[in-house]
Specification:
Alpha-Beta Plaits, MMPL family transporter, 23 helices, membrane, 4-stranded antiparallel β-sheet, 3 domains, Multidrug efflux transporter AcrB transmembrane fold, 731 residues, alpha+beta
Length: 731
């Protein structure tokens, strides 16, 4: 592989105009495709194979005008102290607000609080429910404005009005996280000491993200993609795109500073660092594509879209980057006044922090390993209290209208009104009698606050009963209530000839969390197993992939420990990380997939240089120090860039995006600086030559991909000997 990539690097350098023109054409075509084929994203929450999804689909079929998947809004009206919502002025203001919304666009149904009896016992609070005919991403600005205007109209009478529901949710979008690009630019300038060299990874990273997101946008014409999919693709594509180019550019400058001609330096950089990029990229792609094993369409789409963006970043690093090297020439070695890039100076043998650190770790590997494991164990302790779920509006910041609407609903009607359950009774004939029996059974269950009379479809084959739990939508008591309904009323005690199903947003979330927990172990086995084989193939070793996998498990434990401390215990509330009381149940698989791929990046980049030094004759411990000295500075820069890009997402308004950004930033920090830059050299120093051992029978079976570029170096030495034989005066 190293030889093939060497040729690609030389060709791209020499044919830089052709390669540049091809990529300009690709960018233009991707942009045209995105502009002409794009369709609105969709946030449909489908979980095939679950009872709640089956019931949801049945409701769509039997109650076609109910828009169960449409956007919804709740207006919570609260009278001032000493007053009630039934006071004539207040009641008229509420009626006017409801009438204005009902006359607005895209409305499917509006439930008047006085007609439906949605007024609290003390008369202070009333609820108006609005259902729209489209999902919240398809809501027109005029529709949202009508909702806000109606709320303002009611406020003029002295009422307090708060809004909740999907119709008032902000659409996730890029913004503050772009601050990560500015930090990345600063890190690159400090690392290389050159604006030109720093601009190369930044340019190729942005190009890769642009092409990837354009293709994802164009794909919305053929498949439904969630709103967060382009954000995740941007997050990962930008981080890995910059990092991959950083590693190759660093190696290219090293070769160029050694006096190697530009095309030869580009070939060597792509043949060595580029090989590591290919394996690192494959690991990330495997981890992301592995999300398909969960069986949830939204996660599969997110994983595949991000995997495509990462693959594009790899191709750009192998082709466009060496072409840019050709355009820049030896100006890649230029430095800014006061800045000096050691990565470009192969003659710099002065003690550096990275070499001193590697020397310290390899001299005291047991101490370094013990301290690292103990520190990660302490950080992981809060994970014993982890609580997974899908946060509801009760976990929003206290100053948001959604949270205030949630609290007012709890005050006036109880927590269950924020997450009612829908019990569907379906039968071959009339289900009126069966629905009555189910309704009576529901009233006898513990944890039920209210049961409404059954509502039948026009054909009389299906009935829906609304159940209001006594507990909140994300509480364990509500989960137990759902289990009780399914085990008792939908089990052996179900009416003859009728099927009883539980659905609603709360039930969907419960089923989603259960599906995620069931899929975690198979996902880990698939991703870790495939990546183990890939690393074994790359390094001809059993110790290296085993160590990589165990180190990753420590990283994840520490990451979720930090998540519990921040989001459940509220330890970082003072610095802007809001307490939400639980960890999003989608996070374990998503973060495991992303972090495993990225963690293997650092493993590949660091260990490749160590393996390269060992393959070229250095003793095992010396090779660890040498390889660490070559790679640590660039790995540090790469980690800081990733932490900055991911950390910027903590400022996003969407709670799930904030948690993903926090988890990824913490995981990269832990994995890069503790696991890969401390535990890796310690373990390799302890095992010595055995780190590179592979059974002979297995060694013969596996193809030799030459990740350290040994064949490439050998071929270059043969060429030099031949040149000297022909011209003895040649250097």
């Amino acid at each position: 592989m190293a030889t093939l990539l060497y040729r690609i690097g030389r060709f791209s350098y020499r044919s830089r105009r052709l390669v540049g023109a091809v990529w300009l054409a690709v960018i233009a075509l991707a942009g045209v495709a995105a502009a002409t084929l794009s369709s609105p994203t969709s946030d449909s929450f489908a979980i095939p194979g679950t009872e709640s999804q089956e019931a949801f689909d049945l409701l769509q079929e039997r109650f076609p005008g109910s828009s169960p998947d449409g956007a919804a809004a709740r207006l919570v009206f609260a009278a001032p102290d000493g007053g009630t919502v039934t006071d004539p002025a207040h009641q008229q203001a509420i009626v006017d607000a409801v009438t204005e919304i009902d006359a607005g666009p895209q409305v499917a149904e509006v439930v008047d609080p006085f007609a439906a009896g949605l007024v609290s016992e003390d008369g202070r609070i009333a609820l108006a429910e609005v259902t729209y005919a489209v999902d919240f991403l398809s809501l027109e600005p005029e529709t949202r404005e009508t909702l806000e205007d109606a709320a303002d109209l009611a406020r003029e009478s002295g009422l307090r009005v708060e809004l909740a529901g999907t119709a008032v949710e902000p659409e996730p979008e890029l913004g503050s996280e772009l601050l990560g690009i500015a930090v990345a630019a600063l890190v690159l300038v400090i690392t290389f000491g050159s604006l030109i060299a720093a601009g190369m990874p930044l340019l190729t990273g942005i190009v890769g993200v642009g092409v990837g997101v354009a293709l994802v946008t164009a794909a919305t014409a053929f498949v439904d993609l969630s709103t967060i999919t382009p954000i995740l693709a941007t997050m990962l594509g930008l981080a890995v795109g910059i990092d991959y180019a950083l590693f190759i550019a660093s190696r290219y400058r090293h070769e160029l500073a050694s006096g190697v001609p530009g095309d030869e330096a580009a070939g060597r950089a792509i043949g060595t660092a580029g090989t590591a990029v290919v394996f690192a990229g494959l690991t990330v792609v495997i981890a992301l594509a592995g999300l398909a094993v969960v069986g949830i369409p939204m996660l599969t789409e997110m994983g595949l879209a991000a995997a495509v963006t990462v693959a594009i970043a790899v191709v750009i690093a192998l082709t466009l980057l060496p072409a840019l090297f050709g355009f820049a020439g030896r100006r890649m070695l230029s430095t800014l006044p006061g800045l000096r890039s050691r990565a470009a100076d192969p003659e710099d043998d002065a003690p550096r922090l990275s070499r001193r650190w590697a020397g310290l770790v390899t001299r005291h590997p047991v101490v370094a390993l013990t301290a690292s494991i103990a520190g990660l164990a302490v950080l992981a302790l809060p994970m014993l209290d982890v609580r997974f779920g899908l946060p509801d509006e009760g976990t929003y910041p206290a100053d948001t209208t959604q949270r205030q609407a949630y609290d007012l609903t709890v005050e006036g009607f109880g927590p269950g009104f924020n997450g009612p359950l829908l019990v569907v009774v379906d039968g071959a004939g009339s289900v009126e009698s069966a629905a009555a029996d189910v309704t009576e059974g529901l009233r006898g269950l513990d944890g039920v606050a209210l049961v409404t009379p059954p509502e039948l479809d026009p054909a009389g084959r299906t009935a829906v009963v609304t159940v209001v739990p006594a507990s909140g939508p994300s509480s364990p008591e509500t989960e137990r209530l759902v289990e009780a309904i399914r085990s008792e009323l939908a089990g052996a005690d179900a009416p003859a000839g009728a099927a009883v199903l539980v659905t609603g947003t709360t039930a969907l979330f419960i089923d989603f969390s259960e599906r995620m927990s069931q899929a975690l172990l198979p996902y880990l086995l698939v991703v870790v197993g495939l990546s183990f084989v890939l690393l074994m193939l790359a390094f001809r070793s059993l110790v290296v992939p085993l160590k990589a996998a165990l180190g990753f498990l420590l990283t994840m434990a520490a990451t979720f420990g930090a998540m519990v401390a921040a989001f459940q215990w509220g330890w970082l509330t003072g610095v802007g990380v809001d307490e939400v009381g639980m960890i999003n149940s989608m996070l374990p698989i998503v973060v495991v997939g992303i972090v495993f791929g990225l963690a293997m990046d650092y493993e590949v980049f660091l260990v490749t240089r160590m393996r390269e030094a060992y393959a070229h004759g250095e003793p095992a411990v010396g090779a660890v120090t040498t390889g660490f000295g070559h790679g640590a500075r660039v790995v540090t820069a790469a980690a800081i860039i990733m932490i900055s890009v991911f950390g910027g997402f903590i400022l996003n308004e969407a709670a799930d995006v904030r948690q993903i950004g926090f988890a990824l930033a913490v995981a990269i920090a832990v994995d890069a600086f503790v696991v890969r830059m401390t535990m890796v050299p310690a373990v390799l120093a302890l095992v010595g030559d055995r780190a590179w051992w592979l059974p002979r029978w297995l060694d013969r079976l596996l193809p030799d991909v030459d990740i350290e570029g040994a064949r490439l170096t050998g071929a270059q030495e043969d060429q030099n000997r031949q040149r000297v034989a022909v011209n003895p005066s040649a250097p």
